[in-house]
User: Which sequence fits this backbone?
């Protein structure tokens, strides 16, 4: 204990000693810090079980697999990339290649909240904006069906002004607007939190200098506030591109009807249907899922490299 | 925050341009607040209005012929209350276990002296960007014999890598190293330091984490949908899915029957939205005061 106590002032030195330490010291270092290993152990196990074991399970994408088969056994039938080839020639392949893109509303809102005169009002507004985040997807989609149903509020208002009633949930063209608008409605405030935090860290001296230079508040938003959150914006953008094809399938699944299937079927919802419903084809569904994961990683790397090239912001 | 107010005082002599900017800003945000609030408000007034008036489109700004019939009806729904009970149980269990798993791990990960700290970081980062996908996940749960048990709902939810990193960042930025050094010099071991020095200073992050995990579990339906067959184990969201959504996709037939369906089901829908969302929405303001400390610090440097 005492040896360690003297050192932590320079943590780098404590970490480095691996090379220099004698065996005895190394054992002691390990012993002193082993409680940390115990603290981290449960998390390591949980991640191993629910994140790493499934990664091992993707092997079935290369097999002729029946539910109940062992992943590796003498009777395993390897089929190479056959499942992937089936997917590429699946008539569903191209229709599934789509994703939902976000909207810069959170960025704008954070800038506007930050530029508000009354701090108290801004706080209240922020609380209101965060509220919908806590509504569940089931309830959100339920609300959508209530508002956009054939006899829902939107149709009632339209009918009042002589419009025609419209079954929004049965129309392909209505799916995307409903999906995107409701997502924005639910999460713009929540997504803004991170930018608001960054904005509260802007050095007030920058604002003072800008004021002395005669900048208006609007100019200060553009030239002081916006650059301050740009690093965060690019990081969030990279992250969202990395998850592009995975997001929102739970919601899309809830919003699906026979009428809008052409637009609402995403890779992940398709994986769910082929792999867990009807007559499950697990190997095929796993191959599709793996393809999706790989695309996501590739997108992430491309986004990160691009961002690195054109700015100083990147994840790694 | 104080400095910010000073800046605003400095800019007291607003130009006309500034005044216009502030006004437009306030109007825009005000409209946005209305857009957020109105649907929620409408759900409430629709739930307490005569269903015929709602259906006829008479309810827009205020309730019409107020009735509590809907709430009486939902009291009779056994499946809703069973789902409610299940969800409360799953949520409490998830929160307790997740705090036990996440907070110590976050602390350990924030220590530079953790043996193999870099390796652990990589170990936790990989699953953020790459996963086996749904089917292998299902098969793992199935070979662990968790399918159709409550553990299929609880266990996968007790650790989110995001939350782990947020906790780690919180510890890094808000527990001073000198404090830990002092405690070490006093002869306290790692566990005592964690229990008696670190935890009392971590109320903010624990509150925020508890909220995150609680809301996540309260609102999730997907795992329950794929893993549970026994209806007695159904969480609230799965019951709600039946009430709110299942009926919509079966809409067909003549206008008359559709209208009849709507009349019977709609009031129940509005009421169930309220009954299921109120607990979570109430929880949030209590935890909000910790956000500034917990989320903001965590997210900033994460």
Assistant:
């Amino acid at each position: 204990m005492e040896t360690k106590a003297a050192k932590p002032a320079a943590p780098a030195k404590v970490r480095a000693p691996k090379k220099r330490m004698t065996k005895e010291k190394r054992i002691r270092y390990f012993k002193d810090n082993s409680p940390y290993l115990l603290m981290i152990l449960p998390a390591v196990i949980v991640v191993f079980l629910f994140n790493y074991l499934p990664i091992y399970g993707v092997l079935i994408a290369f097999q002729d697999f029946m539910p109940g088969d062992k992943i590796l056994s003498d009777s395993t039938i390897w089929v190479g990339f056959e499942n992937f080839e089936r997917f590429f020639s699946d008539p569903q392949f191209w229709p599934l290649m789509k994703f939902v893109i976000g909207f810069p509303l959170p960025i704008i809102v954070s800038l506007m909240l930050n530029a508000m005169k009354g701090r108290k009002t801004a706080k209240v507004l922020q609380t209101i904006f965060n509220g919908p985040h806590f509504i569940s997807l089931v309830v959100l989609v339920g609300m959508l069906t209530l508002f956009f149903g054939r006899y829902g509020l939107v149709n009632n208002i339209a009918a009042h002004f002589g419009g025609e009633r419209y079954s929004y949930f049965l129309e392909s063209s209505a799916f995307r607007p409903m999906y995107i608008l409701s997502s924005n409605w639910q999460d713009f405030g929540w997504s803004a939190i991170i930018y608001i935090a960054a904005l509260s860290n802007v050095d007030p001296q920058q604002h003072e200098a800008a004021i002395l230079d005669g900048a208006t508040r609007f100019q200060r938003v553009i030239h002081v506030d916006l650059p301050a959150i740009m690093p965060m914006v690019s990081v969030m953008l990279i992250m969202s591109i990395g998850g592009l094809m995975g997001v929102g399938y739970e919601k899309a699944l809830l919003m699906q009807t026979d009428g809008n299937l052409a637009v609402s079927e995403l890779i992940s919802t398709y994986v769910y249907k082929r792999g867990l419903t009807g007559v499950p084809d697990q190997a095929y569904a796993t191959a599709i899922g793996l393809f999706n994961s790989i695309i996501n990683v590739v997108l992430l790397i491309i986004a990160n490299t691009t961002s690195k090239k054109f700015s100083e912001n990147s994840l790694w | 925050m104080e400095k910010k107010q000073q800046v605003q005082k400095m800019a007291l002599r607003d130009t006309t341009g500034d005044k216009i900017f502030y006004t437009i800003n306030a109007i825009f945000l005000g409209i946005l607040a209305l857009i957020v609030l109105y649907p929620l408000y409408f759900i409430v007034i629709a739930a307490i209005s005569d269903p015929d008036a709602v259906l006829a489109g008479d309810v827009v700004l205020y309730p019409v012929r107020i009735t509590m019939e809907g709430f009486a009806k939902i009291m009779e729904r056994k499946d809703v209350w069973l789902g409610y009970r299940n969800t409360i149980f799953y949520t409490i269990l998830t929160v307790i276990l997740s705090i036990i798993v996440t907070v110590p791990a976050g602390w350990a990960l924030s220590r530079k002296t953790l043996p193999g700290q870099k390796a652990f970081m990589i170990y936790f980062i990989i699953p953020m960007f790459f996963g086996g996908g749904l089917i292998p996940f299902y098969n793992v749960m199935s070979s662990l014999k968790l399918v159709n048990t409550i553990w299929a709902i609880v266990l996968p939810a007790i650790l989110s890598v995001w939350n782990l990193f947020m906790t780690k960042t919180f510890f890094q930025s808000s527990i001073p190293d000198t404090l830990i050094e002092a405690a070490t010099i006093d002869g306290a071991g790692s566990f005592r330091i964690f229990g008696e020095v670190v935890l009392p200073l971590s109320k903010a992050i624990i509150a925020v984490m508890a909220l995150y995990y609680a809301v996540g579990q309260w609102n999730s339906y997907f795992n329950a949908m794929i893993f549970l067959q026994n209806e007695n184990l159904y969480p609230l969201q799965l019951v709600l899915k039946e009430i709110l959504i299942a009926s919509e996709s079966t809409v067909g037939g003549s206008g008359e029957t559709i209208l009849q369906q709507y009349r019977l089901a709609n009031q129940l829908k509005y009421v169930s939205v309220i009954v299921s969302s109120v607990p979570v929405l109430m929880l949030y303001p209590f935890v909000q005061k910790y956000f500034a400390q917990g989320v903001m610090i965590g997210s900033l440097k994460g």
User: Anything to note?
Assistant: Confidence is low (pLDDT under 50) at residues 1-13 of chain A. Residues 2-62 of chain A form one domain. The longest helix of chain A spans residues 23-57.
